[in-house]
Write a structure and sequence with these properties.
With about 220 residues, this protein is mainly beta. It contains four helices and 14 strands. It has one domain: Alpha-Beta Complex (Sulfite Oxidase, Chain A, domain 2). Helix content is about 10%, strand content about 30%. Strands 2, 3, 7, 8, 11, 12 and 13 form a seven-stranded mixed beta sheet that branches. Strands 6-5-14-9-10 form a five-stranded mixed beta sheet. Strands 1-4 form a two-stranded antiparallel ribbon.
């Protein structure tokens, strides 16, 4: 992803001990003049691949999604159990902090409203965990009311590993680093706790329409 502020590049992140692997095959960006985009964003018809480390490979018979509440109570779904839940097919715009935007992307998966329906919690925040060790923090209210999903298909096909397959989270109203790839669970918290990129200087919330890229924005 983009480095912290204007003064720290990818080399700066590496010097801090943060592994960065960024790939953008076939990327073609252009500024749109006929659609509204968040400030500083460019429109792309490609789907650039950006990751904070190597791509994990998770066999479906070992994949699970686990929610751990603030009282340490756990709710657990296997691959088959999660996709037996009612499915949604959201079509949403996505906005990456590296300044590209992709419009009208189509997904299939389970709403977080459905997943959290029977979870008893007084938490206000979630720390999302991925296979491979990535984390990102999101206020719990931003995962509810039709704002977020766990998805396993993109544009009618199984979600490729490079884009977060077998399953990722999408939280499209926030910058796309909040949409954790290779998702494996959530920790529900009473107080906010920064994730991987937030610890490196990215904004805790990440609203693209307010251009909240970095701490202090």
């Amino acid at each position: 992803m983009t480095p912290q502020g204007a003064s720290i590049g990818l080399n700066g992140l590496r010097q801090r001990g943060l592994a960065v692997a960024i790939f953008t095959p076939g990327f073609h960006g252009r500024r749109s003049t006929d659609v509204q985009l968040p400030p500083g964003q460019y429109l792309t018809e490609d789907f650039p691949v950006l990751s904070a480390g190597p791509t994990p490979r998770i066999p479906l018979d070992r994949w699970e999604f686990v929610i751990t509440t603030e009282t340490e109570q756990q709710y657990r779904w296997s691959w088959d159990e999660l996709w037996a839940l009612p499915q949604d097919t959201p079509t949403v715009d996505i906005h990456c902090v590296t300044r590209w935007s992709k419009l009208a992307t189509s997904w299939q998966g389970v709403s977080l409203d459905t997943v959290l329906a029977d979870v008893e919690t007084a938490a206000d925040f979630a720390l999302v965990h991925s296979y491979g060790g990535y984390t990102t923090n999101v206020p719990l209210e931003d995962l509810l009311d039709g704002k977020a999903w766990i998805v396993h298909q993109f544009e009618g096909e199984d979600l490729p590993s490079e884009h977060g397959g077998p399953a990722r989270m999408i939280v499209p109203h926030l910058y796309f680093w909040k949409s954790a790839k290779w998702v494996r669970g959530m920790q529900l918290l009473l107080q906010d706790e920064p994730g991987f990129w937030e610890t490196a200087g990215y904004h805790d919330y990440g609203d693209p329409w307010r251009e909240q890229r970095y701490q202090g924005d």
